[in-house]
Design goal:
The chain is an alpha+beta fold. The chain has 5 helices and 8 strands, in the order H-E-H-E-E-H-E-E-E-E-H-H-E.
Length: 205
């Protein structure tokens, strides 16, 4: 099977709406997707605990208002070789769908075969959606995992981690939460301390 049956559903699913059942809870954003359910709609953290406990579930995150998934999660399900990866907030990710951008200018070394988006590294596609279109058009790629493809996947993700742009906007679980909260800096060791109450010198008589 070149394309798993759940992939197109994943790419067309809207994420980050508020769960109707757990709307008042702290983690009520629908950013989970189940690979085992036929009616694969997005659901929240609490729905996962109650209705998808023993299922294969992946979590969708967000970068610059676009949906991404961690490479560490998705490469267990798909061969992602050929798809550009990025390092955002210390996590290696890839985009689910194509992102609109102006046409690539002259001098761009690498572009997506499907949408023409400029790429950082010599990959074929900018997203899972573009790889899916490439498979439909040309049939010279696959999402099926096997020993050889898995090795290619690891090699591709290593390349992405070396030259990815650290300046990309922060990766988020939702619209307000960073995946890795910033660590506060340690207090300066030479911080000035108050020595006590100052005293005036006595007036000379």
């Amino acid at each position: 099977v070149l394309v798993p049956p759940w992939l197109e559903q994943l790419l067309h699913t809207p994420f980050f709406s508020v769960c109707r059942i757990h709307a008042d809870a702290a983690r009520s954003e629908c950013n989970m997707f189940c690979l085992d359910c036929n009616n694969a709609d997005a659901f929240c953290f609490y729905c996962r605990s109650s209705r998808h406990k023993d299922h294969q579930v992946i979590q969708i995150r967000r970068s610059s208002y676009h949906d991404v998934v961690r490479v560490a999660e998705i490469q267990k399900m798909l061969d992602i070789s050929g798809v550009q990866t990025y390092v955002i907030n210390s996590a290696r990710v890839l985009f689910l769908n194509v992102r609109p951008q102006p046409k690539s200018g002259k001098g761009v070394a690498h572009i997506c075969e499907i949408c023409g988006r400029s790429l950082l590294d010599p990959f074929r596609f900018c997203s899972l959606g573009c790889k899916l279109e490439g498979i439909k058009k040309n049939g010279d790629a696959s999402f099926a995992l096997d020993g050889g493809n898995e090795e290619l996947t690891m090699d591709a993700t290593r390349k992405g981690s070396v030259s990815s742009r650290q300046q990309e906007e922060g990766l988020r679980d939702g619209s307000t939460q960073d995946m890795y909260p910033a660590t506060p800096p340690p207090p300066a060791s030479n911080a000035r301390r108050r020595k006590g109450i100052p005293h005036r010198a006595p007036f000379a008589s």
